[in-house]
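Researcher: Let's try something more involved. This one mixes different molecule types, so please make sure each is placed in the same coordinate frame as the others.
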Amino acid sequence: MQSSEAKKEFIQVWGSLGSSWGINRTMSSIHALLMSSSKAMSTEEIMEALQISRGNANMNIRALIDWGLVKKRFVPGERKEFFEAGKDIWEIARQIAAERKKRELTPVLQVIDDLKAKEDQSDPHFTKLLNEMQEFTTTLTAVMEKFERSDRNWFFKRLMKLFS
Amino acid sequence: MQSSEAKKEFIQVWGSLGSSWGINRTMSSIHALLMSSSKAMSTEEIMEALQISRGNANMNIRALIDWGLVKKRFVPGERKEFFEAGKDIWEIARQIAAERKKRELTPVLQVIDDLKAKEDQSDPHFTKLLNEMQEFTTTLTAVMEKFERSDRNWFFKRLMKLFS
DNA sequence: CAGAACTTTCAGTAAATATTGAAAGATATT
DNA sequence: AATATCTTTCAATATTTACTGAAAGTTCTG
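Model: All components are placed in one shared frame. Result:
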């Protein structure tokens, strides 16, 4: 499958966007490739399309599966695995938000808790900072959980309404 | 000024959080240091506290100023510059959101526009993807702009109401 | 169960990114 | 206007992160 110029550019852009958000370039490129492909692709095809090694392809496909962004797909009569990405953009956003919440927000809440316990109260300014940060993070977590559970459009509808 | 253990840990955690979001570790460490300091600090003091070189300190302080997270502060009788970070966590979040919108969301909208123009319509699936991505990005941009302009208490109140 | 088809791992290497420190550039001071 | 104080720049270097490819591992097939 030879991609159109537009698809290639899309893959490129998505890759660099990912990398500026702390997600490795290859991982987001594979994601873009699979999103823009209408059929599931094998590891070989991905390697070929992006000109990357087998090890790299394999590792990043696994990472995408881990993030819930890509699924294995068994193709009748084929022995090897095929992969496909979910195509609904709101669903993808929800998945990414949920994962980042789990990976980054939850640990931060934990750390703040620990710090508050350690902190000797000698610096009221710092104590206040920790408290506000805890409040902020807790609220943000709640927002993300709501988003995580909301159905496709409910959340953004509410949000837009809130701001209109 | 010798920081407490808790402050040191806070700086450390904030730094690694930043780096997992594509912001360089030193930049977020300096930010954490300044947030947790009740007085403005000079470049020298920052270098000393974080054990970093002058060049590194200077570059990252400039970046923080660029992001609107840190401000110069002239101290009477002192020739050198002092720096201080805003302390209001909602304000900080707003600033970061606004900057990332400007740096990443706006360019993406531009690219999608270009791609839609280039795309030859031969692949309806890809066309649909681009359209949905455009819709999504536009909505997200609108939400962030609202957040950007809203005043602190208003936003917080509305947000809490959404979840009650 | 031997061999083929495919997947995973990981030590070595390459590439990207961040940091240093010394020199050049400013700006103030006498 | 020479000197001192402070800031910025940037080529060299160090560190971190990502990638490769071959070998080991796994699963399927006849």
